[in-house]
Amino acid sequence: MHRIRRGFLTTGVAVIYSVVGFSQSTLPYKDASLSVEERLADLLGRMTLEEKVGQLICPLGWPMYDKVSDDSVRVSDTYREFIDKDHGGMLWATFRADPWTKKTLETGLTPELSAKAYNELQRYAIENSRLGIPVILAEEAPHGHMAIGTTVFPTGIGMASTFSRETMEKTGNVVAEELRAQGAHIGYGPVVDLAREPRWSRVEETLGEDTYLTSEMAAALMQGNSVKNIGFDKGILPTMKHFVAYGNPEGGHNGNQTVVGPRDLKENYFPTFEKGVQNGAMSIMTSYNSIDGVPSTANGEYLTDLLRGEWGFDGFVVSDLESVDGLHFTHHIARNRQEAAEMALTAGVDVDLGAHCYPLLVESVKEDKIDESLIDRAAGNVLRQKFLLGLFDNPYIREEGVEERVSSPAHREAALNAARQSVTLLENKNKILPLRKNIKVAVIGPNADNIYNQLGDYTAPQPDEKIVTVVEGIVEKIGADNVEYVKGCAIRDTSGSEIEAAVKAASEADVAVVVVGGSSARDFKTSYLDTGAAVVDANTVSDMESGEGFDRASLDLLGDQLKLLEAVKATGTPMVVVYIEGRPLDKNWAKENADALLTAWYPGEQGGNAIADVLFGDYNPAGRLPISVPRNVGQLPVYYNKRIPRGHDYVEMSADPLYEFGYGLSYTDFEYSDLKVSKGEDEVKVSFKVTNKGDRDGDEVSQVYFIDPIASTVRPAKQLCEFARTNIPAGKSVTLDFSIPLSTFALYDRKMNKVVEPGEIIIEVGSSSKEIRLSGELAISN
Fold first, then answer.
1. Nearest-CA neighbor of 614 among 433, 483, 761, 780?
2. Residue 403 confidence (pLDDT)
3. Nearest CA to 152 among 365, 467, 388, 623?
4. Which of 242, 144, 258, 200 is nearest to 584 (CA)?
5. How many CA atoms are closer than 13 Å to the CA of 733, on its beta-carbon side?
6. Which residues are CB-contacts of 500 (< 8 A; sequence separation ≥ 6)?
7. Omega before 242 within 30 of 0, i.e. cis
8. Whole-angstrom Cα distance, residue 423 to residue 625?
9. Cβ pair 320, 241 in contact under 8 A
10. Which residues does 692 contact at the CB level (< 8 Å), separation at least 6?
């Protein structure tokens, strides 16, 4: 006997369909001529409670396949149970490979095998579920797809250093193409947390400390990869994370509470997400932290009232991994997992990543603890995307030619371009750089020839031939006969240091290039939590000092790295210091003692070529700091746009950072002139000329800031409101024109109303937040 069930859409409209009278091939939800909402209503009306709950769970994906051989894969018994018993509809990180998953180059999947695995998983789901509902795969993609054989871009903090919307959009194109080629439709990223606590372990994933830069760069990435911008046939569902204020945890501890007021949230933390919703974000991930006693995963005010009610978000909300469980185990606001599930669902979380809690919602409905309409709403939010993506009509992908679309020459070139643009020159004393190519170079340091230390967290194992280290990049420039490499020391471990050998190599060279910094490289000796966060273990000393779970109490170089730098300096050989790092590590000694100093963050697979191009003058550096570099952890927080007044200097040191937001040098000099500022009806127009006064072509990153000198609430010292990265040939000039919406100057007044107040606004133009070249005033009236 067929039952008639009622399906509730997010609009609250009930639609009833009877199963009787339709053959399987003509069921309305299978009819592509009907609208998505008509098909969705029909499908929800046919689903059992258990089937609908199955759409809300997203377990770990890598146990769902068995690799039979290098060219064959099959679904696992775990997957069969997921479909047959759990009625599952979504998987996470199916193609992920790293020490946590225990998937290696040998046991993991190549891109071609990933495509085959996707088709096998999809075929089983469609052929063995009662209603033939397809699965959808979510993959980590913060700086490229986290899978074997894919293109690895610089991590987020490096991408932000490019200050290039065009580069971000191109990166988005590549990520979307590589994910879709292997069967994934959801990409986790961008990370839009504001990095205002450098001790926090996940700074590398972010786009820096500034709201406007983060918003613009994340929007550009999604312009390049979202289904809303490049089509449902090519795009992905980008997942912005982590909602909200996750990047400024108390004490720098990952997942700790964030102490932030409502005005700060509205003016700084919410705008990055709102901009993302406007530019194609189709999924939002909650965060592990709490704000004012309410965990983000249970905050209905943010997840429903704000996200959907005010911003009109029409995608789905997913918890961070096991953050629903955390309502019970971490935050202790729920008595058990079932109660945690009820809290999260009621708040507006559609999908339980980890899938331990939401299966219990079946009992919650049966016990009348929650209304089934909440299940219908959440299931509808997920199923709607499956319809829009065409998964019900064209569920399978082409398996041939996958490797031509993944890590292609064009994609590798895009990674190289991004890495070049991210390299940031901090010091260049006596213009030692660029180096000549007819010299002998000693390449020294723990990050000079370490593949995984330059790739960052959320990176899969990659074949050695895909990755170019600094040593390899320099050898390519000047030949192996002119390069001597000595590691010198590890990042943390001091047991195998070879500083004497490094000193010898430096003494015999014309220049020493010393590559130090940090590492987010996971290895098989590292322990992990269920969430994948690494655990600091006193029994092993890996290089890893950054990456999720590796929070720091200091920002010092660890191990024998400072000893190595001091020893090389003592040889008298000119020394170029390069930091490869995931957070702004201490650079006080290097600033004072190095002849040149650069940071490349984690530059990705082409990092070695990019750094060599900069060192030897084949690329003129123009990276800019998206995060301030502190002098000391005692200064923190030290982000540039703190509210006034400026902190007075400490007894021991200046209150200013060592290097400010937006800072970076070039091999040429730029002059600014002819500032014009005018007010239109609903915008402010800013125009100025930039001239390349040097003898080298180069990019200049021009930055526009505003200062609100008198306001009804305390304002930031200054705020970035526009930027442009522009290539200017030697001796040439360009005129830059910006139209800045008046809403840019809005604030939340004492009654929490968003207003643009009348008064004077100061417009500053320069090459960093401190290096201001031009300034003008503007009167804003009602």
1. 433
2. 87
3. 467
4. 200
5. 9
6. none
7. yes
8. 10
9. yes
10. 668, 669, 670, 698, 700, 728, 729, 730, 731, 732, 733
Q: Distances from the Cα of 582 to the Cαs of 74, 141, 156, 201, 453, in angstroms? A: 37, 17, 9, 8, 10
In the structure encoding, which two tokens stand for residue 209, read together?
A: 């400390």
> Which residues, in sequence order, are CB contacts of 260 under 8 Å at separation 6+?
245, 248, 269, 291
- Please work out, in degrees rounded to the nearest 5, the angle formed at the alpha carbon of residue 87 by the alpha carbons of 83 and 88: 75
420: closest CA among 129, 614, 214, 262?
614
Token pair 């199916």: residue: 94
Cβ atoms of 767 and 716 within 8 Å: the answer is: no
| Six token digits for residue 210 | 């500034």
pLDDT (mean) for 159-173: 98
Q: Backbone phi, then psi, for 167, in 5-degree steps?
A: -65, -40
Burial 329-353 (b: 16+ CB within 10 A, else e): eebebbeebbbbbbbbbbbbbbbbb
| Number of neighbouring beta carbons within 10 Å of residue 52 | 26
Quote the percentage of the chain above a pLDDT of 90. Answer: 93
pTM for the structure as a whole: 0.95
Label the pairing between strands 575-580 and 596-599.
Answer: parallel
From 104, 109, 146, 131, select the one nearest 48 (Cα to Cα). 131
CA neighbours closer than 13 Å in the CB half-sphere of residue 149: 21
Which amino acid, 156?
G
Does residue 621 have a cis peptide bond before it, meaning omega lies within 30 degrees of 0?
A: no
pLDDT at 750 over 90: yes
Sole residue written with tokens 């590796």 = 550
Q: Measured between alpha carbons, how far is residue 110 from residues 34, 49, 149, 693 in Å?
A: 38, 37, 6, 49
pLDDT of 9 higher than 50: no
Task: Kindly state the average pLDDT of the residues 368-392.
Answer: 98
User: Which tokens sit at 683?
Assistant: 């915008």
Q: Name residue, tokens 């998987």.
A: 91
The CA distance from 150 to 152, in Å, is 6
By C-alpha distance, which of 631, 640, 628 is closest to 157? Answer: 628
Report the SS3 class of residue 528.
strand
CA-CA distances (angstroms) from residue 162 to 214, 259, 489, 674, 766? 12, 30, 30, 26, 16
Flag the least confident range among 17-26, 221-230, 387-396, 501-510: 17-26
Contact in structure between 459 and 452 (CB atoms under 8 Å) = yes
Q: Which of 478, 458, 363, 511 is nearest to 92 (CA)?
A: 458
Instruction: List all residues 6 or more positions away from 356 whose beta carbon is below 8 Å from its beta carbon.
Output: 322, 324, 325, 337
Q: Are 315 and 186 in contact (CB under 8 A)?
A: no
What kind and span of H or E run contains 339? helix 337-347
Residues 101/94, Cβ–Cβ less than 8 Å = no
DSSP string, 167-190: HHHHHHHHHHHHHHHHT--EEEEE
- In 209-310, beta strands by DSSP E: 237-243, 283-286, 290-291, 294-295
